[in-house]
Amino acid sequence: MEGEEKKKEGVSVKELEGYAKKLRFEIFFCILFILASLFTLVFWGSTLSIFLAGIGGIISVFLPTQIENLSRKMAHMVFSKEGTMQVIIAIVAFIIAIFLAPIVFFFVGLHAGKSMLNLASESSQDDGGSAT
Q1: What's 55's DSSP letter?
Q2: Rounded to whole angstroms, how far apart are CA atoms 92 and 64?
Q3: Which positions ≥6 away from 2 have C-beta within 8 Å?
Q4: Is 12 helix (H, G, I), strand (E, B) or coil?
Q5: Once rounded to an integer, what is the mean pLDDT over residues 33-52?
Q6: pLDDT tens digits, residue range 55-105?
Q7: Can you give the residue ranges of every domain in the chain?
Q8: What is the 3-state secondary structure (H, E, C) of 62-81?
Q9: Residue 6: is its pLDDT beyond 70?
Q10: Cα separation of 50 and 109, whole Å?
Q11: CA distance 128 to 110
C-alpha cells in the first residue's frame, strides 16, 4: 500500500492560478455576461437590452469594416497597457456591466452582426456563390 500513490483531493491554489491564466479571456467574458444579464433584469428590464443588441447587429451589418477596426483598436489599447492597468480596465468593464448592462448587449450585438456577416460571406464563397 505504501507504493501506491496517495489520492489527491481538491485543487491547489497553484493549479487554479494556472487554469485562470490559461482561460482568462473566457473567465472574464463569462463573468461580464453573467453580471450584465442579471443586472439588466434588476435595473433595466430585458426589453432595452434586446433592442440595443438588435440595433448593434443592424449597425454592424452595414459597417462591418469600421466595427472590426474599432474592435481591434480597443483590444490593442487594452493589451498595450501594463497588467495593473488591464485589471483596472476589467473592473471598469464589470462596473459598466452592473450599472449600464444594456451597453454590454449593444456591443455584443455589434460583434454578433459582424461575425454573422463574415460567416455568411465565407460560406457563400465556399459554395461557389450558389443560393441553394
Answers
A1: H
A2: 26
A3: none
A4: coil
A5: 93
A6: 999 999 999 999 999 999 999 999 899 989 999 999 999 999 999 999 999
A7: 24-120
A8: HCHHHHHHHHHHHHHHHHCC
A9: no
A10: 9
A11: 28
**E strand segments, the chain:** none
Residue type, 89: I
Instruction: Name the grid cell of 72.
Output: 481591434
Local structure of residue 8 (DSSP, 8 states): P
What distances in angstroms separate CA 90 from CA 68, 79, 111, 128, one per listed residue? 21, 11, 19, 43
CA 102, CA 43: separation in Å to the nearest integer?
Answer: 10
* pLDDT bucket at 7, cuts 50 / 70 / 90: low
Q: Quick check: 102 and 48 in contact, CB under 8 A?
A: yes
With cell 492597468, the residue in question is 85
Report the alpha-carbon angle 27-33-37, nearest 5. Answer: 145
Question: Euclidean distance between the first and final Cα of the chain, in Å?
Answer: 66
Which of 103, 104, 110 lies closest to 54 in space, CA to CA? 110
